[in-house]
Input
Amino acid sequence: MSRFPLTARGTGAAVLAFTAFVAAHAFQITELLYISALLTVAVAGSVATLYLVRRTERVERFFDPDVGTVGRDLDVHLRVEIRSPLPTAQGRWRDRLPDGVTGVPEGVFPQTRSGMRTGQRGVDLHYSVTPQRRGIRNIGPISVSSTDPFGFARRRHAIGRPLPLTVTPAVLTLAPLADQAGDVGGTMHATTDQIGQGSDNLVPRHYAPGDSMRRIHWRASAHRDQLMVRQEEQESTPTAIVVLDRASGRWNVEATRAPGGDRGFETAVCACVSIAARLVQEGYLVRVVDFDGAALSDPIDGGDAAGVERLAIDLAPITARRDGMPETLAAVLSGETVGPLVVIGGVLTPPDAAALAPLAHHSSLPVLLAVTPTPGALAEAAASGWRVGRIATEDELEGAWADAVQRGAHRVFS
Output
C-alpha cells in the first residue's frame, strides 16, 4: 500500500487540472480555467477530508485459542472502530505479522459512514495464522488504507498497538511405558515409604521388644502364628526428572539470541515438553530442571494436563544460557533415586557421557537423548547403563523414545 496520498483517479484529476490550466492560457479558453479550478478544489478537498479532519480510531484484538502452538492454526479476531465526521469509501487493511508466524493478514476494509450518525458500529475482521517458531511474537498493528468518497485521495495509517502472542513448543504423542516393570510405573504402581506424603495405610510387621501392646495386629498374628504389630506407612508418588541442557557451548549461537533461532535447540525443547507430558500421563510427579538443578517450571502432578500446559508456556521464551557442566548435574542428583531420569542435550562428547555415567544407577529408567552426539559418545553412555538415542530432528524423537522405553534397545549413532 503506497504512501502517496493520491489514487490513480486522483492523480489523473490533478494532471487534468494542470493540463486544463495550461491550455486555458495557451488557447485563451476561459472555460478551461473553471474546469481546472473545480478539479483542483476537488482533489485538495479530498486530501483534506482524510488528513485534516479529526478521526477517532480504536481496535480490539484477541486470539483463539489464547496461546498458540507451533504448527497449529490459530484465529486472530479484530474489531476496528473508526469515527469521523465524514464517511470513507471502501479500502484495504493489512495486519503486521512477525517472523515465525505465517498467514494472509489482509483484505477489503468496508466503507464507513459518518460517525455523527447514531448506531455506528465497528468492523469485525478475522484471519488465520500458523505459528512456525515458539516464543513471544507481537501481532499487529493493523494498517488501514482508506479513500475519500470520490476516490481521489487515500490514507494509510496504523491503528492500535501490537498484542503479544505466546507460542509454545509442539507436544508430540510419544509411546507409553507399557512394557516396563512395575517399579517404573507412575501412580498406577504407587510405592510406600516412611517419609513420603499421601494417605496413611496400616501394614503389619514383626513384633519387636518395646512395641506397645495396643499396636498388636491380632488378625495378622493369628494368621502367621506370631506377634505382628501395626506400622503406619504413607503412600508416595514416584518422581520422574526431565533435564534440559541449556549450556550455550553445546548449541548454535542462535539459540542464545531468541527462541526459535536454532533448529537443534527447538528439537530439544519439543522433546522436553513431550516427554514430560508422557510421564505425567503415566502418573509420575514430574520435575523439569536445567543442568545445574534449577527448576524450569513448577513440578507437575501425575495426570495434571493443566500442568503440562503451564510447562509449555514456561518453555515458550526459553533460550540457551551460560555454560553448564554434566558434572554439576551429577553432583546435584547424586543423592536422589528416582523413576525415569531423562537427559536431553545438544553436543554430547565421550567425556560428557563419562560424567553422566554415575546417574544411570540412580534411576529405574535412565534415558539420554542427544541432538548432536560426537562419535563414541552414545556408545559409552549405553555401556554405563543409559538408554540412548539421537534426535537430530523432531521426526526422530518418536522412534528414539520408543526404542528407549519399550524395547530397551540402545540405538547408537556414530
User: Anything to note?
Assistant: The chain is about 25% helix and 30% strand. Confidence is low (pLDDT under 50) at residues 179-201, 409-414.
